[in-house]
Design brief:
single chain, 366 residues, alpha/beta, 7-stranded mixed beta sheet, 14 helices, 7 strands, disordered C terminus
């Protein structure tokens, strides 16, 4: 008992020191410019390694600190906006509605049964955000554009940008922008999340929205709609197919997932977690992401052919051929990708400077 009491006293003193240091850290963060998670991790990575502290623990501290500060900072010098979200009762629409309302914006919702009120809901809005399933996005844009004033900012959040952006530019004379949140609707905040920004027209009209996303800890990646769609073939469609296939295989073979996790590697546990999250989503969302464009379908078909070719080598037990495939791919990753996997030092971009070189990096709305 005395030993336990002594241990508790030591733990209490340590906690007191940690609390004091966290208070200092919050004060410093509040007075400094936003630094990305990657920047902050890179600066202390050697210290964490030396102390035997996983980077995930420190990342949790960083994110928790920002989550504490965001509500206090977001309303500074805030100009409240009138916003209408078409599809605002869907999961992604609700997320944006809650986040925008949380800092004081006036957010209205227009659903498919509300079009008799479209004139009031759309003509008076400063921003109209289209958050509907991909298959309906272009038709909704065409229908909504009839009610917009030339000053209304119009943007969408879908996993394909080229067609929706073209539709917005064609049917609306005012500000246009495509957004792709690279996350699902289950997140609690935009902290640490990426949002792809595809400029369309009158970018300045969206600056307050981009500033809002950055103030919430989001990271903005700017590119053209065409560049975005090209990269999403690989980043989204083929990855969804891989995990979709793995999940179906595990279900078909009736694998005891719980038992497998008791003896799993961290990589396996992470993969199972990703597959589980995929199958916790709306099935229409997952399937639409794979079928969104012909390019995505063609890429998945090509990937399936690669699976088939490699599976035949395995069935033939062709060890030499499999090793050759491995070595060819190994050289590709060593030459092309190694430099990119170093700690990233990128800060969120919130202004659309003309000299900013586009990068690639969406989620479909429900």
């Amino acid at each position: 008992m005395p030993l336990k009491s002594s241990y508790s006293d030591q733990l209490k003193k340590t906690d007191q020191s940690l609390i004091a240091l966290l208070s200092d850290r919050l004060s410093l963060l509040a007075a400094s410019e936003f630094l990305s998670l990657d920047e902050q991790l890179a600066s202390v990575a050697p210290l964490l390694a030396e102390a035997g502290i996983p980077e995930s623990v420190w990342a949790s501290v960083i994110n928790s600190c920002y989550a504490t500060l965001i509500p206090k900072c977001a309303t500074n010098h805030l100009s409240l906006r009138q916003i209408t979200i078409i599809g605002g009762r869907g999961r992604m629409g609700r997320l944006f509605k809650e986040q925008l309302q949380q800092i004081g914006h006036n957010v209205s919702v227009l659903e498919h049964e509300d079009w008799e009120y479209a004139d009031k809901l759309l003509s008076q809005a400063e921003l109209v955000l289209v958050s509907v399933p991909l298959e309906y996005t272009v038709d909704v844009i065409k229908r909504a554009a009839k009610y917009l004033t030339p000053n209304t900012a119009l943007c969408d959040i879908t996993s394909v940008n080229t067609q929706p952006t073209q539709a917005m530019l064609e049917h609306h004379s005012g500000p246009v922008m495509g957004l792709h949140p690279m996350f699902g609707p289950n997140i609690k905040s935009f902290l640490g999340q990426k949002v792809v920004v595809c400029p369309g027209r009158n970018d300045d009209s969206f600056q307050w929205l981009l500033d809002f996303l950055k103030s919430q800890g989001g990271e903005l990646i700017v590119c053209t709609p065409e560049e975005h769609d090209q990269m999403m073939v690989i980043i989204q469609a083929t990855q969804h197919f891989c995990r979709f296939s793995l999940g179906i295989f595990l279900a078909q073979t009736r694998v005891d997932i719980e038992q497998s996790l008791t003896m799993s590697t961290p990589n396996y546990r992470q993969e199972i977690d990703i597959v589980k999250r995929l199958f916790s989503q709306n099935p229409h969302l997952c399937v639409d992401i794979m079928l969104a464009t012909e390019e995505r379908c063609d890429a998945i078909k090509s990937l399936a052919k690669t699976y088939s070719r490699l599976a035949k080598l395995v069935l033939r037990k062709d060890r030499d051929a499999l090793i050759q495939e491995f070595e060819n791919t190994q050289s590709f990753f060593e030459d092309k990708i190694n430099p990119l996997l170093q700690p990233l030092k990128t800060t969120a971009k919130t202004s659309l400077q003309p000299d900013f070189k586009p990068q690639m990096h969406k989620n479909i709305s429900i």
